[in-house]
Amino acid sequence: MEQNSKIRNFCIIAHIDHGKSTLADRFLEIAGTGTKGKVSQQMLDSMDLEKERGITIKAKAVRLIYSAGGASYILNLIDTPGHVDFSYEVAKSLKGCEGAILLVDAAQGVEAQTVANFHLALEGDLKIIPVLNKIDLPSANVERCYRELFDIFGFKKEEILTVSAKNGTGVKQLLDKVIEEVPPPSGDSNKPTKAVLFDSAYDLYRGVILFVRIFDGKIEIGDRILLMHQRKEYRVEEIGIFCPEPVKKESLACGQVGYICCNIKNPNEIDVGDTVTLSSNPAKSPFEGYQEMSPMVFSGIFPSSSQDYVSLRAAIEKLNLSDSSFSYEPDSLGGLGYGFRCGFLGLLHMDIIQERLEREYNLDLIVTSPNVKYKIKRKGEEQIEEIESAHQFPDQQEVEQAYEPYVSATIMVPVDFIDPVCDLAKSKRGNFIKMDYLGKDRLNIIFEIPLSEIVIDFYDKIKSVTRGYGSFDYEFSGYKETDIVQLDILFNQKKVDAFSLLVHKDKAESKGRAVAERLKELIPRQMYEVKVQAAIGSKIIASTKVRAMKKNVTAKCYGGDVSRKRKLWEKQKKGKKKMKQLGSVSVPREAFLEVLKM
Fold first, then answer.
1. Residue 292: enclosing H or E segment and its boundaries?
2. Which CATH number is associated with domain 486-597?
3. How many other CB atoms are there within 10 angstroms of residue 411's CB atom?
4. CB 323 within 8 A of CB 267
5. Do domains 374-482 and 486-597 have the same CATH topology?
6. Were both Cys, which of 29, 151, 448, 589 would link to 431 (CB 3.0–4.6 Å)?
7. What is the pLDDT of residue 586?
8. How far apart are CA 111 and CA 478, in angstroms?
């Protein structure tokens, strides 16, 4: 059995696009992990979606064997995401580690998610190793980054390592530093088994795969394990580690990270954050469970064909196992039929879930416009209701008070861009809270902003107005009273629920006009005229038309009296009127997606 003193459990944390996955690639190469010739860019980013977008979506664990000072060490590395929407993956990963590499882009400097991840690691009492990456770039400003790391976190210059993950400069020295500074895992192999279930995945043949970190005792094939929160027992059928491909083992010992399979077929039987022990000799008390992430953005997911509803339900249940941070419940909506009402941590998270459902489960989906969770109080009632979608919103006359969620938004920008950033925040109904200087040329500005104003495009606009130098992070701050109205979209006086939105009263008119004009461009011409309108209650606030397709019904008339043509025109006119009354407007899927992006 491997000794704990030769084990190091650590993760890489950083802002998005600061080089975490590339650094993990260099670690894999130096340790000689994986078959020669198979080491590729972003090796731990196994999804095509991750490689295409250049982002990490799921935290990945891998075991490295590394020799230093004449001894062989086992390094359990977890590569984490950097986008604010996936911060829950970072929080889960930190549970299984004793140390963290805090990676900072030498060209970009400290950014918002760098600060957020630092505090997560600090709360977990991890040993933090500060590292500057991309020092080979011409735009790298190492001295400025030294100052920022000292001013913001208190790291001294001699504590900070400099590396280039791209060409491998300083990476070996960083691994030596990990062995030197990250403490080995504590725990006693003779105590009752106690492990944390920090993640899970679903396999079609093996069922639910549990990713665990052993703190005390050990787990062997044939053991009967107990999930302490769920109070369920299972027999261990398979045990293994990640190298980075799964490698089967006979057991997992104290301090190790790996996976176990118990032939669990129902994904709902698993809680990420649960404590795993042996049913024959259970631990005295479980670990505290993870704090559940509250969904911030809500949207409906519907199959393009009603026949795919059962497939969609099965796909969402399986995907929810590998990403337990999104919630779902059955829903039905007008012409879209049956689907699911889902809650996500942000817009990128929603986009990723949709794309994974389409790619991994071969589904064709329609996703409704995203919105946040509002709270309302009806007239004459004391109880507060939660509203997650526009079609749950009551008539405006029934609403006494409405409340919307606010977030504390932390925006880090160079001093030169303070004016456009403040203008952008104010245009989003933001209230200035405070501003701190981070060194001489960077600012940390905090605004209180309605969540509904930032879920769509706020992050992109921050990047745009700061020429890519700004960064953004947020946390929920509470509910405040607001003036929310329901904006409906009508096609030929018929309301389409899928397009209904909840918006602030001050922005309803401009939003209604924008949506109506965009739909005018997206809806194909029909055999009859289509009137597109935006309305609040019975009041029409925007209106436009999609012209009818023209068919020359008099083409067959060669000469003769004009009355022959008039008869044909009148007949065509009556037919179009009847079609307009009875026909349904064909709205392409692209129209739903385009309005979603707005």
1. none
2. 3.30.70.2570
3. 27
4. no
5. yes
6. 448
7. 59
8. 24
Q: What is the CATH topology of the domain spanning 374-482?
A: Alpha-Beta Plaits (3.30.70)
3-state secondary structure of 234: strand
Residues ≥6 apart with Cβ < 8 Å to 99 = 8, 9, 10, 11, 126, 127, 128, 129, 178, 181, 182, 183
- 401 contacts: CB under 8 Å, gap ≥ 6: 376, 377, 481
Note whether 296 and 476 are within 8 A (CB).
Answer: yes
Q: Which CATH class is domain 194-278?
A: mainly beta
What tens digit of pLDDT does each residue of 172-203 get? 998 889 898 988 888 788 888 888 887 777 77
Cα–Cα dist 169/165, whole Å: 7
Q: SS3 breakdown of the chain: % helix, strand, coil, rounded to 5?
A: 30, 35, 35
Residue 130 is predicted with a pLDDT of: 92
Q: DSSP string covering 333-369, please?
A: EGGGEEEEEEEESSHHHHHHHHHHHHHHS---EEEPP
What is this structure's pTM? 0.68
Question: Count of CB atoms within 10 A of residue 221's CB?
Answer: 15
- DSSP per residue over 170-228, as a string? THHHHHHHHHHHSPPPP--TTSPPEEEEEEEEEETTTEEEEEEEEEES-EETTPEEEET
297-367 classified as CATH 3.30.70.870: yes
Confidence tier at 66 by pLDDT (50, 70, 90): confident
Q: How far does the chain reach from its first CA to its final CA, in angstroms?
A: 57
- Topology of domain 4-181 in CATH is Rossmann fold (3.40.50)
Is pLDDT above 70 for 47?
no
The string of DSSP letters for 253-273 reads -TT-EEEEEEEE--GGG--TT
Residue 496 DSSP symbol: -
The label of the residue with tokens 């790298």 reads: 140
Which amino acid is located at 328 in the chain? Y
